[in-house]
Design brief:
Elements: E1 10-12, H1 23-27, E2 33-37, H2 41-54, H3 69-93, H4 102-109, H5 115-125, H6 130-140, E3 146-151, E4 159-160, E5 163-164, H7 171-180, E6 187-191, H8 196-201, E7 219-224, H9 227-238, E8 244-250, H10 267-296, E9 308-312, H11 318-327, E10 332-334, H12 350-358, E11 364-367, E12 376-379, H13 383-393, H14 422-433, H15 439-450, H16 455-458, H17 461-466, H18 495-502, H19 517-535, H20 542-568, H21 577-606
Length: 607
């Protein structure tokens, strides 16, 4: 049976722990795909209770006393979401010809060039019978996919008392099991790099394997920052008989949440490589999967397997959206941060939504607040930081750390603890005091310690506040993780307004000074390079110099690519082309100034 194609050319990526926690309930019946984070089982259980009560569905709590409570909470929540979406989708299909109906909204939001849209309107205009239209709908329209995300690094071991539990009870392992056992037929998106043990664990579940006809109930999607990563991860899975159905290419810096910067490799050249080498990727993995399926499961594929390429990170205009789809042959483009301003699509408390709508470039920054030690996109005015500062003023810095998803530090303890925890910060500050540093240096080091924020609570609290649900902790504040692109969206919007903006039917971006998405990312990388330059120990050692020079070389190659690309384009970006050239020239001069400083030092070190 041929899989029905998703009707939209965009998707809503995962945002934080809570911002897209129930997005499928809000948008999937309109054919829009979105991604749920399944990291936080407490939040998931709270949301299951919320929707069960709201829809008068029997709710039986899953407590921490249940042996596999984490996986079971996630499974039951995903089953509930699946049930709700199916019901809403069925009701929508039955609302035929009713003015202002959900079906009318579904059709109106489709791309203007959609064959589905054209055919449906044609049937209505020609007065096809209700029965005929219903039969056609059954065969042709689909809900959006209810996809899930696991950040692979969040896979700490768990304990029962002092007894360490088997690896399958690790956080990410249990979350994966919850998805695998759910009724969903969708995708799991794996982000933040390879976790070999977690990846291998996937092969324990039949639902992830393609059948003889290439059908896969539960698909694997990997989020990657470059082609090399895609080759490595695709091969890892293929050797186990698992097919990676989609490579989700994300900008290293022009995105929300944790920012996994490349060594100066830019989005445009990366997408170009995927475009040129897609068949190589498919061919390599097809041979490996066929061999593995024959050996491990004793059957052969009779049909080719599909690979989708999608991208996300900083897209903000219909022209950029269309260009990414058409020039790089992408299947979908992710629109993340702008949807934080759409109450019909995401769950955000009123205060945070207001802060986001008022945010400007200076308010959106790459912070060091994440306990993972990875740069984290944040909003300067977020209420979690305000609550964190109040605790510091009271002489009680740090979080009580009730969730422990980000524990990783063993500097002072045998069992890992979180660098944002009160336990860690108290010990670390006492150690700092013993050094008797000058006041200015002490304050600098103190601020580094206390800058870490409890993202486990902060990124989950918005959904609890918005739905009047009881929090797990008395600690206050909301963390939010928008990308830099949010600065150019300055209001709240209806779902239809945002979708119409994506497809170029209206323009909700009132500001005229927004740079092209590729130029914006390039600027972010130059700023990142400058930060690395200032942070490097002086005098420079050879390793740091090589890294900085290689980084700047990669940026220069990216500039050369963009100059060539924009020269090739005839009508696309025609109104901003001269501005783009001017900005590229200006950035190129900055990179040359950096090299002018570094190259003589490199020669001196090598002499």
């Amino acid at each position: 049976m041929q899989e029905k194609k998703n009707p939209h050319t965009f998707h809503i990526p995962v945002m934080g722990l809570s911002y897209t926690i129930d997005s499928p309930v809000k948008v999937a019946h309109y054919g829009i795909s979105s991604v749920i984070s399944i990291v936080d089982d407490f939040l998931v259980e709270k949301m299951r209770e919320h929707y069960s009560k709201k829809l008068n569905i029997e709710y039986k709590p899953i407590t921490t006393k249940d042996p596999d409570y984490r996986a079971e909470r996630i499974r039951e929540y995903l089953n509930l979401i699946d049930r709700i979406v199916r019901q809403k989708f069925a009701e929508m299909k039955n609302s035929i010809l009713a003015k202002g109906s959900e079906l009318e909204k579904y059709v109106e939001m489709l791309p203007s060039y959609s064959d589905l849209k054209r055919k449906f309107n044609e049937m209505v205009e020609k007065n096809f019978s209700r029965t005929k239209i219903q039969e056609w709908l059954k065969e042709n329209i689909v809900p959006g996919s209810i996809d899930v995300n696991i950040m692979t690094k969040l896979d700490k071991p768990n304990y029962k008392g002092k007894e360490k539990l088997p690896i399958e009870y690790n956080d990410a392992h249990a979350a994966l099991r919850g998805f695998a056992k759910s009724t969903l037929e969708s995708s799991i998106i794996l982000s933040a790099g390879i976790n070999p043990r977690l990846y291998s664990y996937i092969s324990n579940f039949d639902e992830f394997y393609p059948d003889e006809n290439g059908n896969i109930k539960k698909k694997v999607v990997v989020k990657v920052s470059d082609f090399r990563s895609a080759l490595i991860q695709g091969k890892f899975f293929a050797q186990k008989g698992i097919w990676v159905s989609e490579y989700r290419i994300e900008s290293g810096l022009n995105c929300g949440g944790h920012a996994f910067a490349t060594d100066g490799f830019l989005m445009g050249p990366i997408l170009e490589e995927f475009k040129n080498r897609k068949e190589e990727l498919i061919e390599q993995n097809t041979q490996l999967v066929k061999k593995a399926l024959k050996k491990l499961r004793n059957y052969e594929l009779t049909k080719p397997l599909e690979v989708k390429l999608t991208a996300q990170g900083g897209v903000g205009t219909a022209e950029e959206h269309e260009f990414l789809l058409n020039y790089y042959n992408l299947d979908s483009v992710g629109w993340g941060s702008p949807f934080l301003l759409v109450p019909e699509a995401t769950v955000v408390d009123d205060e945070t939504r207001k802060l986001l709508s008022e945010a400007r470039e200076k308010d959106l920054y790459l912070s060091k607040i994440s306990p993972l030690g990875v740069p984290f996109n944040s909003l300067r005015t977020n209420t979690k930081d305000a609550a964190k500062i109040e605790l510091i003023k009271k002489g009680r810095p740090g979080s009580s750390c009730p969730k422990k998803f980000l524990v990783s530090n063993t500097e002072f303890t045998e069992k890992p603890i979180c660098t944002a925890s009160r336990q860690y910060q108290k010990i670390k500050i006492e150690e700092l005091k013993s050094l008797n540093l000058p006041e200015e240096e002490y304050k600098k080091e103190f601020d580094k310690i206390t800058d870490k924020s409890c993202l486990c609570l902060g990124l989950a609290s918005s959904a609890l506040i918005a739905n009047n649900l009881e929090p797990e902790s008395k600690e206050e504040g909301v963390s939010v993780c928008p990308g830099p692109n949010l600065a150019y969206f300055s209001n709240t919007y209806t779902l239809k307004e945002m979708v119409d903006h994506i497809y170029g039917r209206i323009n909700i971006m009132l500001r005229k000074d927004r740079p092209n998405m590729f130029v914006k990312e390039l600027k972010l990388y130059v700023d990142y390079l400058k930060d690395k330059l200032s942070e490097a120990a002086k005098p420079f050692n050879e390793k740091d110099l090589n890294y900085l020079l290689k980084f700047s070389t990669n940026l220069q190659e990216g500039i050369d690519y963009y100059k060539s690309l924009f020269a090739e384009l005839k009508t696309t970006f025609a109104d901003i082309k001269e501005q783009v050239y001017a900005e590229l020239d200006k950035i190129e001069m900055e990179i040359k100034r950096i090299n002018y400083e570094l190259i003589p030092i490199k020669k001196a070190v090598n002499s």
